[in-house]
Amino acid sequence: MNLAIDWRAEARRLTLRNQAFIGGxxxxxxxxxxxxxxxxxxxxxxxxxAACDREDVDRAVKTARAAFDSGVWADQPPKARKRVLVKLAxxxxxxxxxxxxxxxxxxxxxxxxxxxxxxxxxxECVRWYGEAIDKIYDEIAxxxxxxxxxITREPLGVVGAVVPWxxxxxxxxxxxxxxxxxxxxxxxxxxEQSPLSALRVAELAxxxxxxxxxxxxxxxxxxxxxQALGRHLDVDALTFTGSTEVGKLFLKYSAESNMxxxxxxxxxxxxxxxxxxxxxxxxxxxxxxxGIFYNSGQVCDAASRLLVEEKIHDSFLSKVSxxxxxxxxxxxxxxKTQMGAMVDSTQTKRVLDYIAKGRDEGAALVLGGHQVRQxxxxxxxxxxxxxRVQNRMTIAREEIFGPVLSTITFKTAExxxxxxxxxxxxxxxxxxxxxxxxxxxxxxxLRAGTVTVNSRDGGGIExxxxxYKQSGFGRDKSLHALEKYTQLKTTYINIG
Length: 496
Known about the structure:
By secondary structure, the protein is an alpha/beta fold. It has 15 helices and 24 strands. Helix content is 38%, strand content 21%. Helix 3 crosses helix 7 (196-208) and helix 4 crosses helix 5 (111-132). It is globular and about 70 Å long.
């Protein structure tokens, strides 16, 4: 990390892309309408961004379809697509400071996290899929000698991607990198709270050699641009990360339009189960704090439910509370800051309402619970910990998406599993124990797409990520992500 960077000076020098990116160039919305992109760092307006609607989405989809049908990208050999994506990864890394600054200004996360975490992971993701695509083999079925059955994977065509604001560029890369690697054209709609980095990366994609029209970005609101993409008759697949409520809308849009393939990564309410026999309770406490306060708790798999074995409850909660102190919100442009802002005033109010609800329902507030740094003009909430939470309480059941931890005690492993699974969500679960047999048994019993044992790290780009139940279906990351951007074709040849 370069400690000499003056991030505020860098911010003043930024050139912000604020138009839609369609057909390889920046264009205004057809209506001429814009919306204000407000920085949660200090409440200032960063830019007025094109407010795309149905007409803009239709233009982007037609452009993407034309590019796909022409074969200018889809028909390129995998090695050729690989070279372009690796070049894009290099450009992302080369422009890492700019992209990190866009993430911080747009979303409010600490600049150190954006630079050394998010942008680095974006470059890795793009490079990984680029390197992988020329190593994917098709199949020959075990038919009689009188026939030859070829099973091949083909790109779907036009992929619509709708991504959230908590990790604006990383969530986008999890979608566009495998979709492009497979040969599809992409129309990306970033969240209206954080469109700036996606627009810049689209420009870098063309610089890397992705043909015009293959990668398009349409900023706008969910109920306009998002819905138009979900309902479009010429979009072959829609991939979405966001709330369960909106995910259900995309299923409806698909059913009411062309039955497009839909893959969803939706809400979470991760249980973090800590047993007294954990091999390192200090590490478990650090994992508990990181799991809920990182990114101000605005993480889909945030470890928001802390399930602690009764015999260690008091001492363990003290450890977590002490660690929470380093997450006091600070200036996101200061590299020492560990916890930044909430994304906007709406999300800030939502989280404060949940905190009030927790108090009203009888949970014990042991730390935090207040909005802070209001003099900055930005939106900040201090680390908040509730104790004596019952799993039936609202704060234990609904996704808060903020730095709010609910502590629940248990006596037996069976009770812990029952509490953990008593949720409509099933994105991730964490488990801390020194008993390998118990770890295996519990991991098999937990209804979650990812179960981590003695770690909060669910793995890098090489492992799949996605949920059970109302956390959605379909997987991002790993080679499995390519499955949702391709379709199988059987070519059966009679040679008898």
